[in-house]
Amino acid sequence: MNAVRTVLGDVPPERLGVCDAHDHVFFASPRLPGQELAGVRAARAELTAFREQGGGAVVQWTPYGLGRRAADLPALSRETGVHLMAATGLHQDVHYDEDTLAALRGRLAEVFVTELTRGIGTSGVRAGLVKVAGGFHALDAHARWSMAAAAEAHHATGAPVAVHLELGTGALDVLDLLCGELGVPPQRVILGHLNRSPDLVVHRQAAESGCYLAFDGPSRAHHATDWRMPDAVRALAEAGHGDQVLLGGDTTTAAARSVDGGPGMPYLLRRVVPRLARAVGEDLVRRILTRNPARAFAVPWH
């Protein structure tokens, strides 16, 4: 039987409710000094605000070594009533020091499998997905190494593989590697940040593989603007791929949290969803928020 692996244990997929399919409760990277998502109180407030907008679940894509604070997630889930999923995996190499990466050589897949099956560190919290990352229009050696480990972990456990696409690029290269060379079923792959590169042809080519396509995070100054996202989702729906679309908020800095004056998690339901509903209808948006993530993240764990 398929189940979603949350920080409180495996649950039936229909229990997720409205799902933010890509966000961060905690996150810390040397690339974002002073903007760490590290406070439990702020995390609780943000999840509460999301819940008050009708949110039911948040998938945290924070991978290995970037401040996941896995031990704090179960209490936050209980206190706020929001289902939380934790991730294993590895981000781009620029987020790590050389010692951290060197310590993972030869054992990366083992680390992923351990965190999926036994738990993250001593927290006992089992990850429910593997997050990896590509580069800008390319896959470097680090990306290929981490994706090979993610594929190995998928084959050992059934876990879905979520991919950070740098500025939304490289989708087809990722699919060629993960699904072609490494044998991960496309329906177990989630491509993130497609809103940042609104190439409708590439979106459709990727969707034809059977993978999930995540439109996650409001616009930034150097990204494609929000007004293009509804058209991209509508094009996918008209081509028969509406059931493969996911939505997320991708809050990665303290300044972006709603409790600190930014859009944060509630923005997804407060502003993005009504805007998208005008373009594709409320029924499809409801499926994108509930049925699609329930399928994307529920697997027959083994």
Automatic annotation (TrEMBL):
Pfam families: PTE
Cofactor: a divalent metal cation
Molecular function in Gene Ontology: hydrolase activity; zinc ion binding
Sites bearing N6-carboxylysine, chain numbering: K131
InterPro entries the UniProt entry points to: Metal_Hydrolase, Phosphotriesterase
Positions that bind Zn(2+) 1: H22, H24, K131, D250
Signal sequence segment: none
Binding site for Zn(2+) 2: K131, H164, H193
Highest taxon listed in the record's lineage: Bacteria
Keywords on record: Hydrolase, Metal-binding
Co-factor binding comment: Binds 2 divalent metal cations per subunit.
Family that this chain belongs to: Belongs to the metallo-dependent hydrolases superfamily. Phosphotriesterase family.
Protein name (database record): TatD family hydrolase
